[in-house]
Amino acid sequence: MKIIFVVDSISSIQQKINMIRSRFGDNILFVVKAPLADLFKTYGYQCNAVYKNRLALTIHVLLKKSEIDDVLVYYSSFNVDNALLNKFTSKIKNDKITNVMPIYNSFESMCNSAYNVYVKSIFKINDSMASPKLQHIPAVFMTELLESHFANRLFEPPKQLVENVYIEDKKISDSAKIKSSFSKLNIIFLISLLAITMALIIGLAFIKVGFVFVLIFVLLYILDIILFLIFQCKNYLDSRLLK
Questions:
Q1: Mind listing the pLDDT tens digit for each residue in 164-206?
Q2: What is the pLDDT of residues 60-114, one digit of tens each?
Q3: Residues 110, 115: Cα–Cα separation, whole Å
Q4: Cβ within 8 Å of residue 189, ≥6 positions away
Q5: Three-state DSSP class for residue 133
Q6: How far is Cα 24 from Cα 145, in angstroms, rounded to an integer?
Q7: Calpha distance 175→124 (Å, rounded)
Q8: Is the pTM of this model over 0.85?
Q9: Which one, of 133, 75, 125, lies nearest residue 102 by Cα?
Q10: Which residues lie across from 4 on neighbouring strands?
Q11: Considering all CA atoms of the chain, what is the largest pairwise distance in Å, rounded to the nearest integer?
């Protein structure tokens, strides 16, 4: 089994390495976030790969250089405990992908549903919404992944091909989630929102307000909000699958 150990946090790093090594072995490939690379080396480990914002591609290229094998992916920012890791280990099978599923509240579930409408419209398949931070992928699936893209590991597989481990602790669940950062695309939304608002104010000051005038600006605001939601979905997709 190959272990892809993504170093995206240096907190308790030695303890986390020992925890993964004790259960899954020493065949560990460290994929380190660029700003942490020099600090990580001070712990006595070598970086097998360094990434900036193309994590999935970096892992894909790294795995393509070696023989097909089972792959375990773990991110050091995931504060998994022994109980959850034991439960995860017990679910691992040779013919099924093993995922961990965070707790999503009602608002997050609503946002995830809207996000999956966007994903399905592009890829014709849903995002599984499993955490990318801990996953076991048997060798039988790796050939197809490496022929397409390793990022596809997070798309929803048929139910008979997956084992899901559900997280019960809220703090652990929060650390299992990917949080998207501010995107440059959001600036477009803010600029257009400001432009529409300025046009509305000028219009109210100099133009006689009628039904058509109000309708135009209502439609402009709705269009701007729709574009904002699309940008947010794209940003979240990039954060989960690619970055």
A1: 999 999 999 999 999 877 667 778 888 888 999 998 888 888 8
A2: 999 999 899 999 999 999 999 999 999 999 999 989 999 999 999 999 999 999 9
A3: 9
A4: 224, 227, 228, 231
A5: coil
A6: 21
A7: 29
A8: yes
A9: 133
A10: 29, 73
A11: 75
